[in-house]
Amino acid sequence: MGRMTVPDSPKYPLGTMVPSRSTDISALEVQVRVALESTGAKFLPERMSIQCGLEPARGNFPLLTPDLIVSGALVCVEIDSEYTHGDRNEVDQSRNLLLAGLGWTVVRLRLGGLPPVGEHDVICEASTPSKAAIEALAAAVADAVAGTPGAVRKIHKKAAVVSKSQKSRLGAMAEHKYHENAFYAGWTTESGEKLALVVTAGGRYLSVDMGGRGLHFIRHLDLHTRDRKTWRSELIRVLKEQELTSFEPSSIYPWGDTLFIGAQADALQTTLKKFNPGGSDFAFTANLEGPDEFNDESVLKDGSVLASLHPEACEIGWSISDVRLHAGRNGPYQSILLVRDSHV
């Protein structure tokens, strides 16, 4: 295996902005962008990467892609979820320094009570951005554009108050009839709307039942480590908090809209509508071109990966158990079996 070489100069002149190769935009990013734009903020319409200087820790010249870039100013916004940035404080600080070296100011929305890493950070104790958090973020962006010295803003989580005389808006949490390792969590909003919510993967996630389109992910719950007897009170608190923002699903799966990644991943997606992240197994058919082997994570052809399970699916125990080749009326196809290790 050949040794990797480290470039001794950046690909572009420092500060150059180029269209990002990654066009994936999370539902959370869209939610924050729309909310900020309603306050008058304006952002570049496409994702752009910025050529930065030397990153000493890695010895490279990274192209960094902020979540949002303010139009007409060297100000960008990063949206840091507690689930993806919980152990990334040093990385986020490094990104801030690299961008600051080019004259950029980074404004961060730190969700779930993540600690500040910059002077313009907005710390939101809740896992989802409340109206107060968006207002604080808009003010932080305005300060950064104006060149005003930053001030860390903290938005506290509202305490949930449950009246004993008030009928609970959360329905009975029985085991789901059709989805393995899932529980009904029907919720009635303050306006009277009834939502078909489901606690999935043994308490890991909150999802919504989209009928023929399967379960779509709303947010992490992390109830799987707690006694089932405590779920109800905690879920009521979370649902009241979520109602302040939206129950719209943020993605199909907890990690995004694709279960597989790779050159031929698109050939698999249409058959995966009923995939349940908390299930024990899942069988489906695919039309990959010429696969000849597989391992726990990938299906390959001549040693090259055609499609791989998303890394976050592997992290919760999913693996490829079997791939069989078939000859059909319309040509060759494969039947693929996925299994999940319930101990993960």
Number of helices: 7
* Sequence of secondary-structure elements: EHEEEEHHEEHEEEEEEEHEHEEEEHEE
Q: Report low-confidence residues grouped into runs of 5 or more.
A: 1-6
Give the end-to-end Cα distance, rounded to a whole number of Å. Answer: 32 Å
Mean pLDDT equals 88
* SS content category: alpha+beta
Q: What is the count of β-strands?
A: 21
Query: Main β-sheet: number of strands, strand sense, barrel status?
Result: 5 strands, mixed
Output the strand order for the largest sheet.
Answer: 4-5-6-7-8
| Dominant shape | globular
Residue fraction in strands: 25-35%
Task: Write structural notes for this entry.
The protein is an alpha+beta fold. It has helices spanning 27-37, 82-85, 89-100, 131-146, 231-243, 266-269, 311-315, and strands at residues 17-19, 48-51, 63-64, 68-69, 75-80, 105-111, 122-124, 153-155, 183-184, 187-188, 194-195, 197-200, 205-209, 215-220, 260-261, 281-286, 293-294, 298-301, 304-309, 318-328, 331-340. The strands form 6 sheets. It has a 5-stranded mixed beta sheet with strand order 4-5-6-7-8, sandwiched between helices. A hairpin with a 3-residue loop joins strand 17 and strand 18. The longest helix is centred in the middle third of the chain and has 16 residues, at 131-146. The radius of gyration is 23 Å and the shape is globular.
